[in-house]
Structures are given as structure tokens and as C-alpha cells.
Design brief:
549 residues, three-stranded antiparallel beta sheet, 13 helices, globular
């Protein structure tokens, strides 16, 4: 990919506009599985991945969620030595530049576990939307605790979202890390350069470099570090002949190293959207198309963003969240349900362009107007039992890989999803939120007609299997203990290391951008110390956006 230089790539509220562009690989899952996506176009889940400097941190909704202490302690218990919570916490803190939001009542903070001198800015949006305030207060009324979900204990906590936003702009990893690093003499940044193969020695005993664009070979002096993400890294490994022998030979790739677990064990967070509208369509502080895209609201919002670093454009609208347990949580540690709130009613671009919902999805389509007022709940399964895979469809390195997440192939995932929906309805029915919104979410007309009502368990299972979607958090396709060791070295292939979300033993309890960055920090430390060096200390630029290439 290239550098993201468009204004939309810096405006948090424009996050959804970056999908389906040249900054996005634009993958899809397979369409043969009937357990999920039955209500989506072509019965496939759209799978955006960042195709630019900064990767998927350019496309994401900027939520900063580390996961919980039990996630990482469980990693170590399963054999990932050195990856316990106490051992990874310093690397979370190292990268963080926490802004002071201690005055925001509904976003408590535990200072002792946050960093303030790193390159990655973490902040809470101000002023807070009224509807986000009400979400937090309704959760508290139900017994959930207002607290810092990034202090290691997420259990039954609710808060405004901590986000990677700096002075109102998206703080992606290219902005945070590459801006300063690009000045170093020992770093060359090559754009429009796709790694098409890992080069092994003639004896196939070690990695010696990479092939780029099927034209160029770049050789490593010490080792090859692969950081293409939970989809891209296994794709490159497989194209290089490293993976399950039978699958490789089926698509015409010579197997150089038979590794059956490459591309397997994929875990992902799977989510739904429940859209509520305000009573009598009154202004409840949500962000709609009229406020940010149509005149005169668009001019006012753009002025606030460009001049003040504030206003409607400085948030993705993903502004509040809570973590809890279902009645039958899976064996994985940590909360297994997350409910996020988008302070926007959404529009056709979100539902039909990005989520790939069928046209005319809504029972009350006339309410989806530019001036609609409302919000969206995003109930999410954090530890689904389902496991997916990435494999090759073709030996062509420029062809998309096969992505099969196997969502909902375990009945308990469906049951936990239905329970998460009930939790959403409970929150919506609790004051002060219930004073602002209609009693029921807007639901698909087609399913309502089939079932006669939306009150039955069969309706909600059908709803889940039709509209459950990815929350864009694939992990574990090259997991520690299966493909790499605790130092992220690929088993049996010296000088080849993987440093990205694919190495997670299990997906963490929450959005995965923060733990992916932690893996980068810890991986860099492992590599530096392996070669007998000490990590250097760097100062970081906190200036506003500019192109650094």
C-alpha cells in the first residue's frame, strides 16, 4: 500500500469512509457456510484490512482496549513464557502518551497503569455526547461499575471509550511511530511494495530475505521479521511454501516446510448492531449525516476540527462501552461479552456499503434520514468457541486468500449472543436512557414477517445467523506454541520471526489494536536483546498531521 494522506484518514468521524477504498484490501469470507451471514449480500462477511502505512489502524474506530489481566496470565499458563500480564504491562505503558481526562466523571482512570511519554496518544472525547453519558448512567443503574477497563480488571465495568486520538485527529501507528522513525538512517520505507514470498536458503534451513512484487529480492543481514497481520502473515507464509503440505500442493505451491498449524486456530470477535431511534426524533446529541456532511452543519464541524481540534468530527462515534459475562461463559478467562455504543443512528453507507446488509433492511426505513437521531448498540462475543482459518485459494500472491472464520458453528455462541442482545434491551429500558429513545430497536422487515413477531427465541437466532458480522479483530493464525515460540521465532526456520496479532495464543477481551501494538513493542525488545543490544530511547513528535515521505 501507500501512505494515507487524505483528510478522511485523519478525521475520526470518517472512519467508515475508508473502507472500500484503495487503503483497504477489501477481503470477503467464503459464502458456503450457512451458519452465518445469511442476510448479508452474497452471504459473505466483508473483511476490511489496512493496505497502507499504519495497516488496519488507519481503518479502525480507534478504541484503545488492552484486554484483561486474565487474558495474558492465561497465555503464560498455556506455555507463552514471558507474556503474563505483569510482563506485558510495561510495553503497554511504554508506547502510551495518556492525556489527562481525570475530570471526566464517566471515564475513570487508574494512573498507575498508564504511560505518559510514549508516541501513541490515548484520550477521551470532549465534550461527551449526551447519549453516551446516559448509556454509562443506565449501566451503573443496573449494577455495573464505572471504572478504568484498562487497569487489568474489566469485570462488569462501564466507561466512555479511551481512544487513539490526538488533538482531535486519528493517531494511527504510522503517525505515532513512523513519523519519528522515518528520520533514522537505518530505516528505508518502501511503499507500493508487496511481499510475495519469504526466501529460504538453498538447504531450506533458514530464512534469508523476502521477494517483493515478484520482481525484487531483499536479503536480510540478521533475520526476517514478518508483521503483516493475522490475515497477511499466514498468507505470505503459505505462499512461501510454509504450511500444511496437502493444502499447498492442492493449489500448486511446493511445500518447503510442512507446518499443519499455519493459518489455523483463527479467533475473531463477532458482533451485531442494534439500532435505536430517539423519541419523537428529538435531538439527543447523536451524530448524524446532517451534522457532519450537509450544509451548514458540515462547515461548522469542519471548522471545529481544523481550527479547534474539537467537535463532531473528532470521534468515530464509538464513544462508550461495557464488559460483562453471559450466564454460560466459555472456558477462556475474562469477560465474554462487550457492548459498545455508537452515538450515531448510522446511514445507508454504514449498513449497506460496509456491513453489506441487504437493501431496505429496516422495518422503519423512513426513519433512516439525514437528520435521524438515535444510536447503535454493538453486542460482541469476546471469546467465541468457533475457530476459523486462512488458506490459499491460488498460488497467485496478488489473489486474496481464503478466509473462513466459521462463525456460530458452536450453538453456545448463538445462545451467548442472544443473551447479549437481551442485555442491550435491558440497558435501553433503564433510566436515563429509556427517557430518550423508543422502546424497541429497529429490526429487519423480512425476518419480522417470517416469524410474525420479534418475541421468540427462533426470531433472535435467525437474526444472529443472518446479521452477525466481524468486529475486525482476527488473531491467532500463527499462534505461540503452534507456529512460533515465546520469542516469536518460527519453529524449525531460524532467522524468521512473526510480530503481529497472529501470534496471540487467544484473542484478548476487547478491541485488538492496543494489544497488537504491545506485541510490536515487546517483539522489538526481544529482537534487540537477542542481538546483544540495549533498546534505544527516542523522543517522539506530537505535532499535528503532515506527510513524512
Amino acid at each position: 500500500g501507500k501512505e494515507a494522506t487524505s483528510l478522511d484518514s485523519k478525521i475520526p468521524a470518517a472512519a467508515g469512509k475508508l473502507q472500500n477504498t484503495d487503503l483497504d484490501w477489501g477481503y470477503f469470507t467464503e459464502s458456503q457456510n450457512t451458519n452465518y451471514a445469511q442476510g448479508l449480500r452474497d452471504k459473505r462477511v466483508y473483511y476490511p484490512r489496512g493496505k497502507c502505512l499504519g495497516g488496519s489502524s488507519i481503518l479502525n474506530y480507534m478504541a484503545y482496549v488492552r484486554g484483561c489481566k486474565k487474558d495474558f496470565d492465561n497465555w503464560e499458563e498455556e506455555g507463552a513464557e514471558g507474556w503474563s500480564y505483569d510482563e506485558v504491562l510495561p510495553f503497554f505503558m511504554k508506547s502510551e502518551e495518556m492525556q489527562d481526562w481525570s475530570h471526566i466523571e464517566r471515564a475513570p482512570i487508574t494512573d498507575s497503569v498508564h504511560g505518559n511519554s510514549g508516541p501513541l496518544t490515548v484520550s477521551v472525547k470532549e465534550p461527551v455526547n449526551k447519549i453516551a453519558h446516559c448509556f454509562v448512567d443506565s449501566c451503573v443503574a443496573l449494577g455495573y461499575e464505572r471504572g478504568d477497563y484498562n487497569d487489568g480488571n474489566q469485570d462488569n465495568k462501564v466507561s466512555l471509550f479511551q481512544t487513539t486520538v490526538r488533538n482531535g485527529e486519528r493517531c494511527d501507528t504510522a503517525t505515532a511511530f513512523l513519523r519519528t522513525a522515518s528520520r533514522r538512517e537505518n530505516l528505508t520505507i518502501a511503499i507500493e511494495s508487496q511481499v510475495t514470498k519469504i526466501l529460504l536458503s538453498e538447504s531450506r534451513s533458514e530464512a534469508v530475505g523476502v521477494e517483493v512484487n515478484q520482481k525484487y529480492q531483499i536479503f536480510a543481514k540478521k533475520e526476517v521479521v514478518l508483521s503483516a497481520g493475522a490475515i497477511g502473515s499466514p498468507h505470505i507464509m503459505l505462499l512461501s511454501g510454509i504450511g500444511p503440505k496437502a493444502e499447498l500442493e492442492e493449489v500448486g505451491v511446493t511445500c518447503l516446510r510442512d507446518m499443519p498449524e499455519v493459518g489455523k486456530n483463527m479467533e475473531d470477535h463477532i458482533a451485531l448492531v442494534l439500532r435505536y431511534t430517539s423519541k419523537k426524533n428529538k435531538d439527543i446529541g447523536s451524530i448524524n449525516t446532517k451534522k457532519v456532511e450537509q450544509l451548514p452543519g458540515a462547515l461548522s464541524s469542519l471548522y471545529d476540527f481544523m481550527v479547534k481540534g474539537s467537535g463532531n468530527l473528532t470521534s468515530s462515534c464509538y464513544d462508550a462501552t461495557m464488559f460483562c459475562y453471559s450466564k454460560n461463559p466459555p472456558v477462556d478467562p475474562g469477560p465474554n461479552v462487550q457492548i459498545g455504543m455508537f452515538c450515531t443512528p448510522g446511514n445507508e453507507d454504514l449498513f449497506e456499503k460496509n456491513l453489506k446488509y441487504e437493501e431496505n433492511y429496516f422495518l422503519k426505513q423512513d426513519q433512516l434520514r439525514a437528520d435521524s437521531e438515535g444510536f447503535i448498540f454493538v453486542p460482541t462475543l469476546l471469546h467465541p468457541r468457533s475457530r476459523g482459518k486462512v488458506q490459499l485459494k491460488s498460488s497467485d500472491p496478488f489473489a486474496a486468500p481464503l478466509i473462513e472464520p466459521n462463525y456460530l458453528d458452536n450453538k453456545e455462541d448463538v445462545e451467548n449472543f442472544i443473551e447479549a442482545i437481551e442485555k442491550c434491551k435491558e440497558i435501553a429500558g433503564t433510566a436515563p436512557l429509556n427517557k430518550l429513545i423508543e422502546d424497541e430497536p429497529i429490526l429487519p422487515d423480512t425476518l419480522v414477517r417470517v416469524h410474525g413477531s420479534c418475541d421468540s427465541a427462533s426470531f433472535w437466532e435467525d437474526f444472529v445467523r443472518n446479521y452477525a458480522n466481524t468486529l475486525y479483530h482476527p488473531t491467532s493464525t500463527l499462534k505461540i506454541g503452534k507456529v512460533v515460540n515465546e520469542n516469536l521465532q518460527v519453529y524449525g526456520i531460524p532467522n524468521l520471526r512473526i510480530v503481529d496479532a497472529s501470534i496471540m495464543p487467544h484473542v484478548t477481551s476487547g478491541n485488538t489494536n492496543a494489544p497488537s501494538i504491545m506485541i510490536g513493542e515487546k517483539g522489538a525488545d526481544i529482537i534487540v536483546r537477542h542481538h546483544g543490544l540495549q533498546p534505544a530511547k527516542h523522543s517522539y513528535s506530537q505535532k499535528k498531521w503532515f506527510s513524512f515521505l
